[in-house]
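Section 4.2 – Deliverable D4.2 (structural model, holo form)

The reporting period included a commitment to supply a predicted holo structure for the target in complex with adenosine-5'-diphosphate. Inputs used:
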Amino acid sequence: MAQSTVDVLVPPHGGVLVDLLAPEGALTELKAAASRLPSIQLSDRSVCDLELLATGAFSPLDRFMAQADYQRVLGEMRLSNGHLFPIPVTLPVEDGGAIKLDTEVALRDAKNNLLGTMIVEEAYVWDREEFARQALGSTDAKHPLLAESRRWGPVNLSGKLTVLRLPAHHDFHALRLTPAQVRSRLAAFGRRNVVAFQTRNPMHRVHEELTKRASRAVDGVLLLHPSVGMTKPGDVDHYTRVRTYQALARHHYAPDRILLSLLPLAMRMAGPREAVWHAIIRRNHGANHFIVGRDHAGPGNDSTGKPFYGPYDAQELVTQHERELGITMVPFHELTYLPDEDRYEEGSKIKAGVRTATISGTQVRDDYLNRGRPLPEWFTRPEVAKILAQAYPPRAQQGACVWFTGLSGAGKSTTADVLTALLLERGRQMTVLDGDVVRTMLSKGLGFSREDRDLNIRRIGFVAAEIVRHGGLVICAAVSPYRATRDEARAMVGGDRFVEVFVDTPLEECERRDIKGIYAQARRGEIKNFTGISDPYEPPLKPEITLTTVERTPEDNAKAILGYLLGQGFVVSDEDADAAD
Ligand code: ADP
Ligand code: ADP
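Output (structure tokens):
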């Protein structure tokens, strides 16, 4: 009985759902044998790919591609057996020469967990330029996959896989379903038609509207199938996204019309080819309809400012292959909100002169979340708005790091003291990591060799990054003479919340002040490696703020930094604070 209901669903691409998982009974023995094999460590991307190969999401593909598959996929979007397959799924490794053909290797994740084994049947060199041109349709360095591919090894391995364990996921356990599990859940709905929706963004009203329209149009079940493997760098994290999907599925869809399941797919951001691939993957999960909207899996603009793919290229390519895909595309026409009628309508059906309203993704961030303004209900369901507001608190509740750099005696600590008082006065708490103080605690025992200084700065950077990550404000004031190490600190904290303040006091002035008598000692040679005297100081090239302490007082300078923080929204202005009262 259960079998016959499963049969109402579309069969997998190629007819059979691939299953690479070793039988339960053989696991102990296989794991013991695998532990004695040489290992290959997989990238996060390859771990995602392995999971989808193992569970049949990429059916009929049952291994990382051999050269014949790879070349034909690049050239013709087909596997060597003729099946449509538009995206290369390969296992690039660093040191192909060290691996002997026809031997077995263990596959492990970044933490050395054993995932499976592979008999290495092929090792071949691949060409990045050709890959980019054919698979991505562009060799522009701004393509996120091309950028990432520079870190991939030069040799692709292929061979028979045995998967011993799927990658562990400790989040949203109940939503992590394999294609076979999705199929059996879908079959239980008792409907033949299933329309799948792919997404890598939080869902707003417009997405709710179009998915509901699609499932109504095909009289079927909606498979809400977000990608949660790797998406475009900078996307909203999947924890937050999935919470929005759960809230929507729970409160705004009829339970007998929706199945939410997470897809651990590592996206390629390859636009049209990726759309065809997404359709194949959803068919393998039992969907016979697939929603394709505007600029599906598009990575944004290239380095000349032009979009990588045309907005409807993906729809066109899917349409061309619809029959072979065995999946009907539901094209998503752009829906627009009509405030006077409080409803959404397709752009093409809106009469001239009718009032419309839209909010762009950038506006969501800059005009609403960063300022702590609630997203309007016509745009986002309140349940979703609340989750987004929690994940993206207003800037005045986000962390930031003010990083002073300059010679000893330049005025870093003095200015930091004044700034601290001005911030406390405005209700912001903060931590001060002053070089001299840090060296009595966190970095006690470190000297002034290049290694020790770098370690000191890295420690400060690490602590600062943790404080910022938890929404705190931190002021760091150390000489930090080396540019590269300051840039490391910037990278740890995150460039958009790192304010480098160059206290540009000339050496002569610092030496004239010589509050600790330390320059005199350095001149006498009693202190070695003294910054500015016997050790270099590398001034920042593009600091957010440069201060002079000769013409301006510490109060002037602290106010200038405060002004910058106000401008960035990290501190609430007096007017805004009054308005909020
Ligand atoms: P650093 O932390 O950069 O080593 P300090 O702030 O400890 O430097 O010392 C700077 C010294 O210079 C203090 O004695 C301070 O009073 C003096 N000074 C004079 N003018 C200024 C100014 N405009 N800004 C900061 N400090 C100044
Ligand atoms: P860094 O960023 O170079 O590690 P810190 O700000 O942690 O510097 O500490 C520098 C402070 O230590 C200076 O303000 C100075 O008083 C003192 N100091 C002692 N020896 C040196 C030195 N060789 N070079 C620079 N500062 C030194």
